[in-house]
Specification:
The protein is built from nine helices and 21 strands. The strands form five sheets. Strands 4, 5, 6, 9, 10, 11, 12 and 13 form an eight-stranded parallel beta sheet that branches. The radius of gyration is 23 Å and the shape is globular. Helix 7 (251-257) links the parallel strand 11 and strand 12. The protein is an alpha/beta fold and 418 residues long. It has helices spanning 14-24, 31-43, 107-117, 141-149, 182-196, 218-221, 251-257, 296-311, 321-332, and strands spanning 3-7, 52-56, 82-84, 93-100, 123-127, 153-156, 166-167, 173-174, 204-205, 227-233, 246-250, 281-287, 316-318, 334-341, 345-352, 363-369, 376-380, 383-384, 387-392, 395-402, 409-413.
Length: 418
């Protein structure tokens, strides 16, 4: 999938949209959703630099035939041979946690869970911009800044979450008069989040509004985000992921179906060779978070986290939603070329079809290295990059983190302390 990047300024303007909303005049029964809409528009009144727009030529990455029929980790046979690992650090599978409109009171509980598992859990918090400022429930921007500082990801859940939408006779949700449109919901929410979390870049989003067709335009949303949680309720198969329509399921459902053999949701299938979702990606969806972890429904979510981060901690990557999507898009479009293999050094070049200005997540390469290389140092464009030496059936392999499209990389035998 090739991404083209341009800069545009969206119409209608923020003040034009605010004028249209004000002209509607909310009724007594609808003043709150109209107020949310108006607040969302006025929040955008401050000048914000126009964002990059992502014009997609395809809905998903190139599907590599080598990802079909997976049987486990691969092990290059000859010194100097290398493979691109399916997931970061050569993990068997990956999971992400996404929380829609998390209550700020839930944050301390999730921090305790990170301490419990001794890892920063891969939590992506979805932000409805018009709700920020509600100190009781969703907190101020300072709370969202704290989430990012903790290692969580903040993603867009649109500006208004469909406030004011009403269901028509056909069952579809219809927007209120004066609604500025889906493109405004997608683009403006990203701009406002980035303006209020200095230095942060929003990569991910999930549309809102229930089943409203007006909110389910993945092509338009794909102009502004690298990935979307917008697919079916099931696990994701590796090599068959539409990154603008990533599948998901609730943490409760994943916990309840664990070990049941459910074809689409049993997380045990992520680790069973021959299963459809072997080596796949589980994306959990929760609403609001949890303040104390005691609710009966939430215990099912705790069960699945225990399974993934406890039982399978050595085999699973706890990856942020945006990180996993970036890794997958780069991997699916990557080409690895080994340039030089000598007794002293191994070098190669990693490229991919994604735009290097926006896709800079390192891919894990597994390089067969000489058994005499007990320690290995590596660099890319003269910068030191991380390595880990592992053994398999008596042979040495080096895992190395390489960023695509950033020039050649080199491995060489290292001495103690190097």
């Amino acid at each position: 999938m090739i991404q083209l990047f341009t800069h545009i300024r969206l119409l209608p303007t923020r003040f034009e949209a605010a004028w249209r909303l004000a002209a509607v005049g909310p009724s007594r029964s609808s003043w709150l959703p109209q107020a949310m809409l108006l607040l969302g528009v006025l929040l955008a009144a401050a000048p914000v630099q126009a964002e990059e727009v992502f014009t997609l030529t395809k809905d998903s990455g190139v599907t590599r035939s080598s990802l079909s029929g997976l049987q486990g980790r691969t092990w290059p046979a000859t010194v100097g041979e290398a493979d691109i690992c399916l997931w970061k650090n050569d993990k068997l599978a990956v999971y992400s946690i996404t929380i829609d409109t998390m209550f700020k009171a839930s944050y301390p509980w999730w921090k305790k869970q990170c301490e419990k598992y001794k890892v920063t859990l891969p939590i992506t918090v979805l932000c409805v911009v018009s709700l920020v400022g509600n100190e009781t429930s969703w907190g101020k921007w300072s709370n969202w800044q704290e989430y990012v500082a903790s290692g969580f990801e903040v993603a867009s859940h649109t500006m208004t979450h469909g406030a004011g939408f009403k269901k028509d006779a056909s069952g579809d949700w219809v927007p209120p008069a004066g609604w500025p449109g889906a493109e405004w919901e997608y683009s403006e929410s990203r701009k406002q989040i980035e303006a209020n979390i200095p230095g942060y870049r929003v990569r991910s989003m999930c549309p809102a509004g229930g089943g409203a067709k007006a909110f389910r335009d993945k092509t338009t949303a794909g102009k502004f985000y690298l990935c979307q949680r917008n697919g079916a309720r099931m696990l994701n198969r590796p090599g068959n992921i539409d990154y603008q329509s990533i599948n998901y399921t609730s943490g409760v459902n994943l916990g309840e179906t664990l070990g049941t053999g459910n074809a689409n949701m049993d997380a045990e299938n992520l680790f069973k060779p021959g299963q459809e979702y072997f080596r796949g990606w589980a994306v959990m969806m929760l609403h609001y978070g949890e303040q104390d972890g005691k609710s009966e429904a939430f215990q099912a979510t705790v069960k699945i986290i225990d399974f993934l981060q406890g039982t399978h901690a050595a085999d699973v990557w706890p990856g942020l939603f945006g990180d996993v999507a970036q890794y997958g898009q780069e991997r699916d479009t990557a080409t690895l070329k080994m340039d030089e293999v000598t007794p002293e050094r191994i070098s190669g070049t990693l490229t991919c079809l994604m735009d290097p200005a926006h896709y800079q997540y390192p891919l894990t390469l597994k390089v067969r290295t000489d058994n005499a290389w007990k320690q290995v140092s590596a660099s890319q464009n003269s910068a030191v990059i991380p390595t880990t030496v592992v053994t398999h059936e008596g042979n040495n392999y080096t895992l190395v983190e390489v960023v695509p499209n950033r020039g050649p990389f080199t491995l060489q035998k290292a001495t103690a302390g190097q």
